[in-house]
Amino acid sequence: MVKIHKILTGLALWGIISAGAVLCPVWAGAKTEKYTNTDFAMNTVVSETLYTTGKNLNPSVGELLKNTEENLLSWTEEDSQIAALNAAQGKTLEVSDELAGYLEKIQQLSVDSEGAFDPTIGKIIRLWDIGGENAGIPAQEELDKLLKETGYEKLELDGNKVTLKDGATLDLGAAGKGIGCDLVMDLLKNEKEVYGMILNLGGSSVMAYGEKPDQSDWRVAVKDPRDPEGEYLGAITLKGGEFLSTSGDYERYFMENGKRYHHILDPETGYPVWNGLTAVTVVCDSGIMADGLSTACFVLGKEKALPLLEKYGADALFADENHKVYLTEGMEERFELMKDTYKVQK
Fold first, then answer.
1. How is the chain split among helix, strand and coil, in percent rounded to 5?
2. What's residue 2's pLDDT?
């Protein structure tokens, strides 16, 4: 049995400010500084806004995210644990405690969502290549062949021992940014001089930690799925310790014969999900769960998603192609509609 162990050493809010430090008013008896930065990690633009009486931790945050991708999650980096598992051809490998813990949570979400979240569909994602240079509708014969090599049941966990059966491979892209947010939260908890931080990865995964010096709310803009470069659909208020994730059919897609083929695939059919939803935003107290739940809820559709959200204590916003917005009870208290072309449904 092969052992894989990696030590990890050692983000985009809409309206990014260029990197720098700004002296803030006295708060809690100490002068705080505001550090802002933009970076690139996990294949997306990352932004950080940090309030602290200590050193600027933004470089450490960026380094942590990059190392997490390269050493833990990437299926393309040969030295990553996921890549090693995929190359094992069904052999049992021993992974780090960190990765084993994440895989256990992912497997549980797969079970709870009845396969709507499935970490084994990476081959099908790459077959469609949506957002890539060779995007197109695959041949049904080729799709059917790969479907036989997918299914969350093919992931077997025994403590730190991981086995991928029947040609299955892992792709944690639907949970990776959330994992990154969780790791940054853990980093900040050990830094006593940090009062608050907002971290945004590509507009789809956000982490709020602590408070602002003026104790105003952390507010995150939500894009209009049918006008993502225009006015925002609305804004969601986060508390320190909460995470937000959005999955939408506007992020990566191509059009053919008037039909939108987007990157959120139904694990059962291998085709993009067409259920009338255009975006799902989830808020909860875990980065990996917020990320995974937004995908699972998009696949399930609003009605089937509600019991899953309740099980995980999560709030959600559903936007559909008729410009209607549906909110869970908890989301009603934190969402503000900003675009009059949409209507919140009661």
1. 30, 30, 40
2. 37
